[in-house]
Amino acid sequence: xxxxxxxxxxxxxxxxxxxxxxxxxxxxxxxxxxxxxxxxxxxxxxxxxxxxxxxxxxxxxxxxxxxxxxxxxxxxxxxxxxxxxxxxxxxxxxxxxxxxxxxxxxxxxxxxxxxxxxxxxxxxxxxxxxxxxxxxxxxxxxxxxxxxxxxxxxxxxxxxxxxxxxxxxxxxxxxxxxxxxxxxxxxxxxxxxxxxxxxxxxxxxxxxxxxxxxxxxxxxxxxxxxxxxxxxxxxxxxxxxxxxxxxxxxxxxxxxxxxxxxxxxxxxxxxxxxxxxxxxxxxxxxxxxxxxx
Amino acid sequence: xxxxxxxxxxxxxxxxxxxxxxxxxxxxxxxxxxxxxxxxxxxxxxxxxxxxxxxxxxxxxxxxxxxxxxxxxxxxxxxxxxxxxxxxxxxxxxxxxxxxxxxxxxxxxxxxxxxxxxxxxxxxxxxxxxxxxxxxxxxxxxxxxxxxxxxxxxxxxxxxxxxxxxxxxxxxxxxxxxxxxxxxxxxxxxxxxxxxxxxxxxxxxxxxxxxxxxxxxxxxxxxxxxxxxxxxxxxxxxxxxxxxxxxxxxxxxxxxxxxxxxxxxxxxxxxxxxx
Lengths: 293, 275
Hints:
The structure holds 2 protein chains of 2 kinds.
Chain A: H1 2-14, H2 18-55, H3 59-67, H4 69-102, H5 108-120, H6 123-134, H7 141-146, H8 155-181, H9 184-191, H10 196-225, H11 228-234, H12 244-253, H13 257-292
Helix pairs in contact in A: 2-13, 3-13, 4-8, 4-10, 4-12, 5-8, 6-8, 6-11, 8-10, 8-11, 9-10, 10-13, 12-13
Chain B: H1 2-6, H2 10-39, H3 43-50, H4 53-86, H5 92-98, H6 101-104, H7 107-118, H8 123-130, H9 139-165, H10 168-175, H11 180-209, H12 212-218, H13 228-237, H14 241-274
């Protein structure tokens, strides 16, 4: 009896199901096609077009373009600025993240918001702000110029501009990791007699290292590619203050684009490498989260 | 908390003092300097600089292109996040990794890519030009550049929320007889709305200030393809620093307003998550 009752019931629920299920994939494929098609148009095709443009004539012209003295000088300057800005921002980023998470003080919410400001500022506006402040007639620039220190149209201004646009990255990556960590392990370290310095190096830093690594990678990627702020601040003097991105801009504007294309491909390759690194780091972060849960 | 009271140590105070001073000199002081210098010649001069037809057109063009871009971003970004979370297809891991490419690739390189692909000398540019469609040195080029640069924002904002959401509510709606579209509109979309808003606000704010990719693609034609950042740069180059500062202040105020709204949204979402 029971089976006789059951069977029609099962049949009734099973019968209407296949129909909508069979109709669904069409819409699903259409959605997939739109999404993947737009991904290809927006990301893959432009990247492929650049690679094709540079490498269509073979590797030799590419290598020759990169061997040119201005190109090497421009990349050298870019790497130097990136290194300086990343080191300074790493020190500040970790220190400020610690202050934001572990200290309570008046105006904390305001400073928390202030850190994000560089993300909201156009690079050109960032450059202009630095010119207003550090330019030859600027608030601070006048005094510095008197002391013989040139900031704008020189290396210090370019490092400052890069530091400004990349300032939030490390703070924003380290703060959530510190928040999640809590203070238990720190308290234990103190209880066991570790000094602040020891606690930082032996406990805090190892625990935040993947978040920090992610923030540093973002900082490096943005520093390598910074353009608008540097254009305003550098004065764009060939050789002297020409970074890789400024070199590319000049090449395209002066209608001698071949070396600019080659330099673009190198920068794109570098950023692709950083992207792979970011992906690895994110996988590490996910693993750690999984373990904690 | 207990540590700050027991050990409100000189080391803590020094660290706080040093980082806050750094933040002040690096971020607050430049903003303050520009604000003060822009306001110095008075309200009338400020208004005159803003009502310059070139400045006004540049601002309008910037907001219009960013608005068109953000609408496309919302639809495409939500659809992409949906496909990445809910569908399986070969090469999904690769697509998922490459979505962040615009975060890593320098904006000037993005501009170069688009010029190579759509420029007047390129194959695609020639074909489009035959039908009278200009991309590079025209307004569609600006929107295309903005789309590329802001591509990951909405996707990366929606994706984790969709992943966490699960399908229980959707299945309940389907059991109650709702079609897939109704389920999406009435059940899924309301849950995704805060993350879509966050992603699109970030994308919009980024698009307002975008310079590197637009400078090559737009060709900087005043009253045609000159966006606000291009106008600001042109005025700096031309030695009209006051005009540049006034438009900069307007841009800065717009971005600030967006950031504040974003903060409010996130706070509300935080409250919802807490329940």
